[in-house]
């Protein structure tokens, strides 16, 4: 809804479009309606869709100017109707994972399958630089797993994803929140793994990042 009391009738199929009183073409004329359903306009109060060839448009304001006796009391057709605002629930505060928790994962790369793969391609120094640059840590949830930490524009960690690459570099994945990891195996079975850390005891808040 536009918020105005008097609007052109929304399209509801050919039955909601009528013959224009000016050009007489069929199914091209939209009549004005009262959203409060207290007043019915004559059939010629509306707009023709053929703006170039016809251009007929009789607005509610023009109609009431010509027929002031029909104007509803306490009505303002030129402004949106007053509406009571619906209270909305305030957004939850953003949740963050402690920097100490993240830093504890940025080591132990000798048992991290992703690091070992990168090391075989680029060497140990470049492999470790890439892991730290992209904030990829080592996870204990699966032997050889890594964790990709998601940071916002201020460098604060919002969430993360645990991923496990096997010897053939196929992967399993898991979403890390403030309190749990939800993992999906190659057999599409859901596994719930709790994170036992005092640093992750904060209740989950708003994980969505601002635009």
Order of helices and strands: EEEHHHHEEEEEE
How many DSSP helices?
4
Question: What structural category arises from helix and sheet content?
Answer: alpha+beta
Distance between the termini: 27 Å
Radius of gyration: 32 Å
Unreliable residue runs: 78-85, 176-207
Strand content: 15-25%
What is the number of strand segments?
Answer: 9
Mean pLDDT: 76
For the biggest β-sheet, the strand order reads 4-5-6-7-8-9
Q: Tell me roughly what share of residues is in helical segments.
A: 10-25%
Spell out the key features of this protein.
211 residues, alpha+beta, six-stranded antiparallel sheet, three-stranded antiparallel sheet, 4 helices, 9 strands
Explain what you see.
By secondary structure, the protein is an alpha+beta fold. Helices cover 15% and strands 22% of the residues. It contains four helices and nine strands; from the N terminus they run βββααααββββββ. It has helices at residues 60-66, 99-103, 113-122, 124-133, and strands at residues 6-8, 29-34, 46-48, 136-138, 146-151, 157-165, 171-176, 180-184, 190-194. A six-stranded antiparallel beta sheet has the order 4-5-6-7-8-9. A hairpin with a 5-residue loop joins β5 and β6. α3 crosses α4. The longest helix is centred in the middle third of the chain and has 10 residues, at 113-122. It is elongated. The protein starts with 5 loop residues before the first strand and ends in a 17-residue tail after the last strand. The relative contact order is 0.10.
